[in-house]
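Repro:
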Amino acid sequence: MQVICMKKRNKIMKDSNVPLYQQVSAMLARDIKSGRFKPDTPLPSINCIEAELGVARNTVIQAMRQLVQDGFAVAKHGKGFYAVDQKQQPVLNMVLPLHHYYYIQVYVNLIAGAQEMADQNGERLQIYNSSETHAGFVSALREISSSRPDARIIAVPPCNGNGIVLDKSSKELEKISKGGAKVIVVDRKLRSTGIPQITQDRLEGRKLLLSRLFTKASRKAVFFNASEHARELKRFANEQSWKGSLAFESTSGLSDDLALLKENRYDAVFCSNDLHARRLINAAGGKVDFMLAGYDGTVNATSGSPRISTVNSNLMQAGELAYSLMNPVKPPEYSRTCVKPFFVQGETF
């Protein structure tokens, strides 16, 4: 395929205050906007631009990166740079599990944060439901990257019970990242360190709950499904000179959970999430004789009666932060960031 090179009339002003790479980028942008380079057609090669304009190779590479960042071009792995239809609204992609109404309640805040940032910048948010399966996740990623190898993707990948991303899903993320996609993983933990991650600080959230006990007449508390933080939480209670006992249990069904709570006479119960908390209340006939708190800050906690005290995981901030990392002034090196949760007062704690 023959590729059109630069117009001879294009000249670089080396004594200008405008950096050379910005001049090159502006020239190409004008040619794309004028229709000289049609959408989805290859742009001149880096060698061609370098020879025609008499600028350094690094200058051309920087110009092409600027062109991509400004939405005038995409980089296709092994093929070069292609013009983008300027009439097409830029797209920000999200891949996350939305197969269960509770997941929808949790991640609606993440979507809202990213949506607000996209709206402010005239972009469209495209959402894909992975159904919390590797097959669904990979299918969505490949659908996105097949049309835009340099696509921007906020991902909540499938994970194990400890929130660690499945190895095969992690490898797929690494693959499309090497192909040119920008990926941010939210609310899940990758073992690899090549992709930026934004997680919620669940330990901090659980400390917020535990600290409520220090001013109350509570002497026996239990955390459900929080054993990974048992050591830190016990240390935190000791540091605050709390004299009560702290236990850690796994959920095993509502009737068994209620029997466990009654047998051990716990006066404070920290549930694994808001849904667990609401179900315990319902199973107990709408009233419990212990303080109770959920986790996630969902409608399950705040809309019913009694209103459940809960921790909001602050995923709206995570969505805003993910967008910012997608569109940096300077591309960041690998980073892992935690968003800080906050306590939401209800009637049960």
